[in-house]
Design goal:
With 210 residues, the protein is an alpha+beta fold. The protein has a single domain, classed as Alpha-ketoglutarate-dependent dioxygenase AlkB-like (Jelly Rolls). The protein has five helices and twelve strands. The chain has an eight-stranded antiparallel β-sheet. A hairpin with a 5-residue loop joins β3 and β4. It is globular. The relative contact order is 0.23. Bound molecules: N-(carboxycarbonyl)-S-(naphthalen-2-ylmethyl)-L-cysteine and fe (iii) ion. The site of N-(carboxycarbonyl)-S-(naphthalen-2-ylmethyl)-L-cysteine has 16 residues, from β5, β7, β10, β11 and β12.
C-alpha cells in the first residue's frame, strides 16, 4: 500500500486480536505535523541508546516527552539530568492519541507520556512485554513514521505462535484490554530512504505511566 492509495481511501480498522486494533494510514493526514513535533522533542531531549534490563546498550535509540508527574516517576537517580530534559507532550500528538483511543474503543485513555523509538537499518527489538506502566487497564497507542518494519505480535509467553504484521508510515496500532500483555517485537529493519524520515523508522508510543 502506498501513500496515494492511503490518501484516496479510508483508514482501515482491523481487529488483530481482542483489544488489538490496527488502523492503517490513520496518521497520514497529519504526518508532517507529527514528524515536526518529533524533531522538536528530539532537539529538547536528545536520542539515547536504550539499554537492556541488564544495562547493555541496544541499537534502538529512544527519547520521551510527557508530564512532570510522568518524568518524576521515571526519574532515574543515576542520571537525574536526563529526566529533567523531558519536554511537555506536544498538543498535536496528545490530541491525536486521544482521537485514536476513542476510535479504537478506549475513550477513557489518559496518556501522560509519549515514548519515541528510532530504528535504522539492522535495528531490531526482541520479543518482550510492556509491564512498566502503572495501570494495565490503560491501552498503549503506537504510531509508525518513516521506513516500514515487520512487527511481531505473539501471545502471553515468549515461545509460541507469532503474527507478522507490516507496519508502514502512518499506521496506528492500539493495544489494550486482553491484548495488553502480549509479547511483541520488531524484526531487523531493512535499509531504505524515506522522503520524510530518511534512513529511519520512528515509532511513537503513548502510555500512562504515572
Ligand atoms: C503489543 N515498540 O517501545 S510499538 C516499545 O515498534 C515497543 O517500536 C515497538 O514495543 C516499536 O516497547 C512496538 C507497538 C506496541 C506497543 C505496545 C504493545 C505493541 C504492543 C503492548 C502489548 C502488545
Ligand atoms: Fe514494547
Amino acid at each position: 500500500m502506498n501513500l496515494f492509495s492511503h490518501l484516496a481511501t479510508e483508514p482501515t480498522h482491523e481487529d488483530l486480536f481482542a483489544g488489538a486494533v490496527l488502523m492503517r494510514g490513520l496518521a497520514l493526514a497529519q504526518d508532517a505535523e507529527f514528524f515536526a513535533a518529533v524533531e522538536r522533542i528530539i532537539s529538547a531531549a536528545p536520542l539515547r541508546h536504550a539499554t537492556t534490563p541488564s544495562g547493555l546498550p541496544m541499537s534502538v535509540m529512544v527519547t520521551d516527552c510527557g508530564t512532570e508527574r510522568a518524568f518524576e516517576r521515571r526519574w532515574d537517580p543515576a542520571s537525574p539530568q536526563r529526566a529533567r530534559l523531558w519536554p511537555p507532550m506536544p498538543r498535536v500528538l496528545l490530541d491525536f492519541a486521544l482521537r485514536c483511543a476513542v476510535r479504537a474503543g478506549f475513550p477513557e485513555f489518559k496518556p501522560d507520556t509519549c515514548h519515541i523509538n528510532r530504528y535504522q537499518a539492522g535495528t531490531r527489538l526482541g520479543l518482550h512485554q510492556d509491564r512498566h506502566e502503572i495501570d494495565l487497564s490503560q491501552p498503549i497507542i503506537s504510531i509508525s513514521l518513516g521506513l516500514e518494519c515487520t512487527f511481531l505480535l505473539g501471545g502471553f509467553e515468549r515461545t509460541g505462535e507469532v503474527k507478522r504484521i507490516l507496519l508502514e508510515h502512518g499506521d496506528v496500532l492500539v493495544w489494550g484490554g486482553p491484548s495488553r500483555m502480549r509479547f511483541h517485537g520488531v524484526k531487523p529493519l531493512k535499509p531504505g530512504d524515506h522522503p520524510m524520515t530518511g534512513p529511519y523508522r520512528y515509532n511513537l508510543t503513548f502510555r500512562k505511566i504515572a
